[in-house]
From TrEMBL:
Enzyme Commission code(s) on record: 3.2.1.39
GO biological process: carbohydrate metabolic process; defense response
Topology relative to the membrane: Lipid-anchor; GPI-anchor
Protein name in the entry: glucan endo-1,3-beta-D-glucosidase
Cross-referenced Gene3D superfamilies: 1.20.58.1040, Glycosidases
Amino acid sequence: MGTSLLSLLLVFLSFVELCRGSTIGVCYGRNADDLPTPDKVAQLIQVHQIKYVRIYDSNVQVLKAFANTGVELMIGIPNSDLLYFSQFQSNADTWMKNSILPYYPMTKITYITVGAEITESPANISELVVPAMVNVLNALKKVGLHKKIKVSSTHSLGVLFRSFPPSAGAFSSKFASFLKPMLEFMVENQSPFMIDIYPYYAYRDSPSNVSLDYALFSSTSSEVIDPNTGLVYTNMFDAQLDAIFFALMALNFRTLKIMVTETGWPSKGSPREKAANPDNAQTYNTNLIRHVINDTGTPAKPGEEIDVYIFSLFNENRKPGLESERNWGMFYPDQTSVYSLDLTGKGNVDMVTGANITSSNGGGWWCIASSSASQAVLQNGLDWACGPGNVDCSAVQPSQPCFQPNTLVSHASFVFNSYFQQNGATDVACSFGGAGVKVNKNPSYDQCLYMTGNKTTIANSTATKATSDAYRGIPTWSTTQVLSVVFLSLSLLIARVGV
């Protein structure tokens, strides 16, 4: 009986994992001197319900900040450390002991990238990558984590000798000495092939050959037909991704899963980078997210699940190069949004009309809490807005005009709207991980006056600013309650199958 129950549980969990679908993550680069502290970044990521984050090292403060958040973290070993990791197994073992084990599993590390875009590196480090990967994997095996944490390395599209048409995709022969053993390593250990894809650069560098609509996933884009396969492409992202697939297939590695570890669009550029603006950045990332979460796949692999990481969370003011290099972020360092972006790909729904809201019109819109949102999500959003979000939450304290009705939904609605109005009344300022919805009917009542685009203030609001701790007494879903629901579901499943 016990064995049967355990087997059923494992099958159930495996089924859940298999049905996960495509995922959207975000790259958290830190090449800047004005970014918020890691703990505030972790809070921002939780508020926006981002579940997958890539960092480029194993910074202790970042690892600590993401403890117990449930966020899956992809950490990195920089190119500058490849020699150290490739030389001796003991070096990788020491790093594992000091940089991973103290924080795992509280911090949910799922991938380790060994080196990044090594073919773009000016130093000849390509021969160091595979030995370093092997040593890191061996270190994981010694502590029993090799099945839970996957080891790979990221690549730029420069790893290809040819990318068009997609069916002719081929790796450059000059990388063969390290690429073949790397691919064999990935197959043996079920690690994904990681690629950074940037249609922006293809358009910027060759606007006469690549249309802007094609680069932006625009519905008005003209079709591009692969003459060898007859496959029809409506966007550059799919064409570049399939070029990688065909290149892998040419080397007999067609079963390798491909993961996009960077893609995005800059919101600002130098005078020659006219396509780098907030509208195009919003369009690209919005269309990308919808394309991915719908499990559309690509023309060569329709319905294929694709895990994609958007670059980047913040603008990074210390990055070298053209102006665009410092302006890939979805957020400014002060945590306000650069442009409106719904990371769920579903848009916010107007509870009054049921319409899908996509405009960023301020003044005529308010943001309230969704009545269907879980207590935990509402609580998380409320805590963040009253803390790092810098919202004055005094109006929802006892004896203040918005305290009644004393419910989490009511309090969250007022606080969410205040944050929304203070941050440009954009869609992203009302996301709160899907808990916020925009409405065009003023939710003010009695003496509780909701802020609008012209900054209406709250009557009789004289209490001191509340902190998020004031809400700790409101019941939220505990881990025990969640587990109870899970095991209740399992019990019902077991009863049905007669175990």
